[in-house]
Specification:
Elements lengths: L2 H7 L4 E4 L2 E4 L2 H4 L6 H14 L6 E5 L4 H11 L3 E4 L10 E6 L4 E6 L7 E9 L3 H12 L3 E11 L2 H7 L5 E9 L2 E4 L2
Parallel strand pairs: 3-4, 3-7, 7-8, 8-9
Antiparallel strand pairs: 1-2, 5-6, 9-10
This protein binds 1-O-pyrophosphono-5-O-phosphono-alpha-D-ribofuranose and hypoxanthine.
Length: about 180
């Protein structure tokens, strides 16, 4: 299961970002290129495990976008992108994003009270991005029906679960200077 994803991870190059060993992979970076077969394998799997009875798929810029696009084409469900820039629209919500290697801002638009949403993203590491997003969506009155992330590394998911956030992941990995390993 998820053979293409697992095989491709074993060849991912590693670069250092400060203290963080950053893996470079098609699904997490779009580099060197994303094969349609790999995207299909992943999104077919997501459709099987996720609650797809939602009004909207929510993708985090940038690398949630190919996932949401493929899922939207498969299911007919529209998607919204949580952007890294402001549109200054009424009701726009700003959240601060902190990952293991960067700090930034994310902007939520066009979510209204009662919307049923599915969040998709490529990687969860510290869990900082997802926890901030889920909290903000709930405060806007959205029902976060499911959260699915392709790759899990580090302690973010267990931290999220300890704090009452639910998240499904496809593959758990560890990363060091030698490369990516797949965990059971
Ligand atoms: O669990 P965390 O520590 O919060 O890290 C996870 C986030 O980091 C990456 O986003 P990044 O900001 O690098 O954006 P990108 O999608 O543009 O690569 C990834 O796509 C997640 O959104
Ligand atoms: O190591 C990583 N690589 C790509 N995307 C990521 N998002 C969080 N960590 C990573």
């Amino acid at each position: 299961m998820l053979e293409k994803l697992c095989d491709s991870l074993l060849n991912a190059p590693i670069v250092r970002r400060g203290e963080y060993y950053y893996f470079i992979h098609p699904i997490a970076d779009g580099v060197p290129f994303l094969e349609p077969d790999l995207l299909e394998e992943i999104t077919d799997h997501i459709v099987q495990i996720a609650d797809m009875d939602v009004d909207r798929i929510i993708a985090i810029e940038a690398m949630g976008i190919p996932l949401a696009t493929a899922l939207s084409l498969k299911t007919g469900i529209p998607f919204s992108i949580i952007r890294k820039r402001s549109y200054e629209l009424d009701g726009e919500i700003l959240l601060s994003q902190q990952t293991g290697y960067s700090k930034g801002e994310l902007y939520i638009n066009a979510i209204k009270n009662g919307d049923r949403v599915l969040i998709v993203d490529d990687v969860v590491s510290t869990g900082g991005t997802l926890m901030a997003l889920i909290t903000a969506l709930k405060s806007m009155g959205a029902e976060v029906c499911d959260t699915v992330v392709v790759l899990e590394r580090g302690e973010g998911v267990s931290r999220m679960r300890d704090m009452g956030f639910e998240v499904k992941t496809l593959v758990r990995i560890s990363v060091d200077e030698n490369g990516v390993s797949i965990e059971d």
